[in-house]
Amino acid sequence: MKIAVLGAGGTMGARVMRVGQNAGHDMVAIDPFHDDSPSRLSNAPKVDVCIDFSHPAHIDSLLEDAKKFGVPLVIATTGYNEEQSDEIEDASFDLPIFKSANMAYSVHVFKQILADYAKALEDYDIEITEHHHRYKLDAPSGTALMLGETINDALGGNHKLNSGSRSGKRNDDEIGMSVVRGGNIVGKHDVMFASAGDVFTLSHEALSKDLFAEGAIKAALYIINKKPGLYDMNDLIKESRHK
Predict the structure, then answer these.
(1) Which domains does the chain have, with CATH numbers?
(2) For the whole model, what pTM was predicted?
(3) Which of 75, 76, 100, 205 stands 20 to 30 A from 59 (CA)?
(4) What is the pLDDT of residues 80-125, one digit of tens each?
C-alpha cells in the first residue's frame, strides 16, 4: 500500500514513516517545513491513503486535496478548534476519515474501562492528570480531553471539564484536569477517583511513540476501503473483535 504522511519531518511523522517501511508499505513523505519534500498532498505521487501528523494550520489544504483526489485520511493531529472540527466532519460526507486524538489501541481499551468505572463510582470526585514531554503544544492533551468526555458521557453528560485555575471548593459536577510538561515523557494519563473513605487511580502510560505510529498504520489499513464517513478507534476495535 502507498501511504502518504503529512508532517513526515516531525517526531511522530518520522516514526510512522519508519514503522510503515518496516511493515513493507510504500511510504511517501510530505513535509510543509522542508523544501525537499512536497508541501501538499496534491504535489505527491498518487497514494492510497494519507496519515496526518502535522499541525491544525494545514487542515484546509489537506481536506481540499483529499476531496479532489479521493484520498482517505487518518487524522492524528490534535488541537483543532471547533470550526476546524466541523470542517473535518463536513468532509467526511465525501471521504472516509479516521480521526482520533490518540492512535494507541490500548488507550481506547482504557477509555472503555473508565466508562464502566465512572458509572459504578458516580459519587466520587474525578481528577485527570496528563503528563507529556516539554515540547507538546496543546494542553490539556487531546487524549485527556477524550477521556474526560468519555467519563462525562458515562455520567449522563452533566459534568464540566475544568482545566483552568481553581479557587474555592470543587464542584460536584466537575471533572478536574491537570497538565504536566517535562523532559521526554511520551504520554501518561492518570484518572483518580476519590471519596471521603478511599482513593484509587487508573493509569495508562506509553513507553514508546512507536505505539502511536503502529496504531496509525493500523488505522490506515482499516480506512482505505471504507465508505465516506467519520470513523475512530472504537470502530476499528469493534471490527477487530468480529473477525
Answers:
(1) 2-103+210-241 (3.40.50.720), 105-206 (3.30.360.10)
(2) 0.77
(3) 205
(4) 999 999 999 999 999 999 999 889 988 988 998 999 999 999 999 9
